[in-house]
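Intended use. Records like the one below are meant for learning the mapping from a protein sequence to its folded structure. Do not use them to infer anything beyond what is encoded.
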Amino acid sequence: MNITRITAIRHGETAWNVDTRIQGQLDIGLNAKGRWQAERAGAALAGDDIDAVYSSDLWRAYDTALSVAKPHGLNVQTDEALRERGFGEFEGKTFAEIETSLPEQALQWRKRVPDFAPPGGESLLHLRERVLQCVHKLASQHTGQHIAIVSHGGVMDVLYRAATGLELQAARTWDLHNAAINRLLWNGEHLSLVGWADVSHIDDAAFDASRDETSA
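Structure written out for the chain above:
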């Protein structure tokens, strides 16, 4: 059967996620909670028969992917095409700062105008093209197998829309939680959705920041 099972995981939490600061393709690492979330995701997937682990080359995704790969004795293979959307001048700014300093661009961003690109960034159309090209390539290399893909919120959004047939401008009604486990199938041509936004592995345990000396 030309079926590839795909488990897609968004990276764990970063300090910039908490601050609602746009990371884009800036290389921001996980915070203490994010590292804990990554470990929990890895433990939740330890019993799955995963054949390969792929990740964005940005550290927050790669670090999360290491926790997914470790129980299976796998190396993490990185691909720049799995990076977050390039946000150009938006990167490093909070949502509120973008609204204030770039109001016209912020409006187009909020409306999800497909061909709008933040100054120096990329459009939703370009993001979708590069992500789907990459995922189809990886899936085609692993027909009959199960792969894990660790990436970013924008990439997870593209995968959900592709698997459900939703347009880029459709309002988002689904979650993109940090370290959530999302499951899809690829049949040789198309993606389909099996399960989305499973956070039971991080909802059923309390994060204790005091355990991590680097959390201060």
